[in-house]
Amino acid sequence: MAILILVGLAVQGIFGVAAGILVSSIIGIIYGTVKKNRQFVKWSVTALVIDLICIVLFYVGLAGGM
To answer: Domain limits at 2?
Structure first.
């Protein structure tokens, strides 16, 4: 998952970190569901929710500044 975040950072800059976390958490949810690992799914969902909240707050802040 760290590799996805670093590739996103290298390709897209700081916006790649949010995209990398988003993709990693979705992959983590799928992997945890397939392997029936509830703790892995819980942490992946937590990362997804935090990432989505940060993305929404960023866009609200960006739109509010204009």
So the answer is: 1-65
